[in-house]
Amino acid sequence: MNRLALITGATSGIGRATALRLAGLGYDIVATGRREERLAALRAEIEGNGGRCTTLCFDVRDLAACEKHLAPLGRVDLLVNNAGLAAGLEHIDCGDTGDWDAMIDTNVKGLLYVTRIIAPKMVAAGGGHIVNIGSIAGTEPYENGAVYCASKHAVHAISQSMRADLLSSGIRVSEIRPGMVETEFSLVRFHGDRERADGTYRGVEPLTGDDIAEAIAWIVQLPARMNVNDIVLMPAQQAGAYYTFRKNEK
Ligand code: NDP
Ligand code: 8X3
To answer: Which end of the chain is more exposed for a tag (fewer CB within 10 A), N or C?
Structure first.
């Protein structure tokens, strides 16, 4: 029987790359997201490569939908809590409260809802691995990013606590905290403004979704006695939230 990996937010970026990479390692994939046609395309690609993929289309902010889709799953060996977003980039006095709700409800509450349904299955099975996608924003608060940074600080705290909670059940918890990764992230953050989104990566070679997927593939293949608690992955041109070297700029 193949191992099963559940990846939230697999319709683009890091999640999609991770689903493909883990399918290549022989995992059966359960891929989630809200965009049905993207899920169908992912499934076709995995199946075209000889893998197995189930797709579940729902919003992680909706607890009832999480329960409806995830409770029927059997054994889950690996959960990648990836679904998330940044919405807006403004000073706190100008922020959009709808954006704030979206970030907190998705990045924090959505991750908790999914974990609450899957972790007991791992406890019952006597083991498993949970990989949470945090961010450098989880330890480096930056101007204009109060709520996104708060949500990723929460992911960082939750990851540490859940690691302790699940230790005696043989469940490993790892957190990956990337810097700049070129995905749909900035397009979503800037509400579809392509020019502004592209500006994020001006003069920089950012990480790719495949780079993060590669790290996840490494982490999950380590011997059972080993765990990566926390890994910060950066583009070579970025040292931190405030330090990016952009080529061709003074
Ligand atoms: P993308 O926008 O490319 O992918 C985000 C994924 O999350 C999509 O599959 C999207 O699917 C899903 N998602 C968003 N909201 C919901 C929701 N309410 N319910 C279900 N799924 C949802 O961005 P990334 O791949 O970059 O982002 C993945 C994770 O990586 C996020 O947690 C992000 O915070 C984190 N991260 C990203 C970095 C970057 O620079 N790109 C750096 C550090 C961390 P759909 O829209 O179909 O629902
Ligand atoms: C995404 C990277 O720098 O926008 O988490 O926080 S950053």
So the answer is: C
